[in-house]
Amino acid sequence: MRFGLILGDQLHHQLATLKFLDRAQDVILMAEVLEESTYVAHHPQKIALIFSAMRHFAKELKAQGWRVRYHPFQRNSRICKLIDFVHVQQQLLPATVLVITHCGEYRLQHDIENHWSSQLQLPVHCLDDDRFFCSPAQFRQWANRYHTLRMEYFYREMRKQTGYLMQQQQPLGKQWNYDSANRKTWSGKPSLPAPLRFKLDQIDLDVIELVRREFPQHMGNVANFSWATTRSNALLALQHFIANNLPHFGDYQDAMVYGEDSLFHSLLSPYLNCGLLVAKEVCDAAEAAYHSGHAPLNAVEGFIRQILGWREYVRGIYWLRMPEYASSNVLNYSAALPQFYWTGRTKMTCMAECFRNTFDHGYAHHIQRLMITGNFALLSGVDPQQIREWYLAVYADAYEWVELPNTLGMVMHADGGLLASKPYAASGNYIQKMSNYCKHCPYNVKTRTEADSCPFNSLYWYFMIRHEGVFRSNPRMGMIYQQLDKLQDKDQIITHAQQLLSQVNEL
Ligand code: FAD
Ligand code: DLZ
Ligand code: SF4
């Protein structure tokens, strides 16, 4: 008899572990444990989603004839870590081997590979996670062929490999990337589809109660929980997105609107990351919508690029560069994360809106994460370790393999440009162009150094001044430095920015 341990982000019926094992003989282990629930202060909705999806998944496995040993969360249990549960089960029902599918996070994978077999006195057999288009080994081979590891070139290879939106080896529409067509602002039309909210069943309600009781100190509101916690509901979420949002996904991908939390985005990342959906079926559905004439090419290409391109690429970078990647800090940043990242209380409307969305739903769309909360952390020099912990804690879709490269690479430029050829730094001008936040804000987006000036403005130029040695020679930033050279009020900008940073919690 063999054990198969299935983790909270491996809830897929075609998981390598399940394909490998035999339901007539082997035993599946699943456990809700303190260590996984508290290695960062996860948003209560993230914990509720994972526990409830785990419980539903275990029930489905049992209905299919699998023997499942399930450990529900208990605060004072001697089972605090996943290994503790395997150990207890091994004493009750000795197995010959423990089978596991490769973990999403280095922390746990490293522990399993290096310690579990000797600690458990049990061989551990680790299978590749085949839910992705590109394995870490394939990514390494790709990376060995390139001097700079740009997502765009990786993405083109993945398009050729999978055949998505390809015709006779050429991209449909003769263009690989329609990003430049995807930057419209949204001012009320087309109307926004109502987000799909799922009715809670008894398992969801029990878990929500448990999370409320056991994790009261974790920031975030669990009362609004309405995520799908079964595969069948996650498939409904996918259908809802394809039918209602996908046609406009491309046009408004970069837009931000006061009071609107997800616009035309898919809200599918929590399901993709915990296993309720797999990337291939999501991309297949999007491509089919193009071929049936339901959605235009710029939307479908833009959407598939996020999954086939960005999602696979950041995972490749993660496994290529860990564990060193986690401590990158090329800009030598050390400022404390401002308190408002945890309280949500700030006068800056753009930031307050992102925090509201984050704490109410365990969600913010990409541009909110990158160009608002991320941009502010970049401009104000926050310690990468503090901001990476924040992003890992507050989103329902957050797992280190995807969160870390996005935070350290894309947002903080901490990896020195491995992931992004220039920092995604922006002043209030960009935020005003892409959103209507500034209309609702007490700060003045038009000025730089007045008492009520938009903080992003002076911080933006101060960032360029502080890091001139690193960025002036960057060919993609030449225009910015030409503009900087023409500024008459550089000294006032520096003084104003320094003053803001010294009282950052007051903003
Ligand atoms: P959509 O806009 O509908 O996009 C479709 C899908 O594409 C997403 O579901 C997601 O699977 C994928 N995707 C899009 N952008 C990215 C990206 N940059 N990297 C990887 N996949 C992408 N995504 C996570 O899944 N988990 C994280 O922990 C996470 N942390 C992030 C941290 C920062 C600082 C930033 C800037 C981005 C992060 N992202 C993360 C990427 C992105 O913001 C989310 O995937 C997206 O907002 C999820 O919402 P959605 O499903 O509505 O996405
Ligand atoms: C995120 C998470 C949480 C909150 N709780 C559990 C848990 O109790 N049991 C479990 O198996 N997995 C959980 N997870 C997901 C794991 O943290 C995830 O599998 C690892 O980080 C590896 O990616
Ligand atoms: Fe954000 Fe500045 Fe606009 Fe206020 S004025 S919403 S702080 S960009």
What would your notes on this structure say?
The protein has helices at 16-20, 34-38, 44-63, 82-92, 106-120, 136-144, 151-162, 202-214, 231-249, 269-274, 279-291, 297-321, 340-343, 349-361, 366-379, 384-394, 400-411, 428-434, 455-466, 468-471, 478-486, 490-502; strands spanning 3-5, 27-31, 67-71, 98-101, 124-127, 166-167, 170-171. The protein has 507 residues and is mainly alpha-helical. Strand 4 (98-101), helix 5 (106-120) and strand 5 (124-127) form a beta-alpha-beta unit. The protein folds into three domains: 3-127, HUPs (Rossmann fold); 136-199 and 229-321, Alpha Horseshoe (Serine Threonine Protein Phosphatase 5, Tetratricopeptide repeat), CATH 1.25.40; 340-506, DNA Cyclobutane Dipyrimidine Photolyase, subunit A, domain 3. Helix 7 (151-162) crosses helix 12 (297-321) and helix 15 crosses helix 17 (400-411). The chain contains 22 helices and seven strands. The strands form two sheets. Strands 3-2-1-4-5 form a five-stranded parallel sheet, sandwiched between helices. The chain has a two-stranded antiparallel ribbon with strand order 6-7. The radius of gyration is 23 Å and the shape is globular. It binds flavin-adenine dinucleotide, ligand DLZ and iron/sulfur cluster. Flavin-adenine dinucleotide (FAD) binds at residues 265-269, 272-273, 303, 306-307, 310-311, 314, 365-366, 369-370, 374, 391, 395, 397-399, 402-403, 406-407, 410-411. InterPro entries: Crypto/Photolyase_FAD-like_sf, PhrB-like, Rossmann-like_a/b/a_fold, UV-DNA_repair_photolyase. This is Cryptochrome/photolyase family protein. GO terms for molecular function: lyase activity.
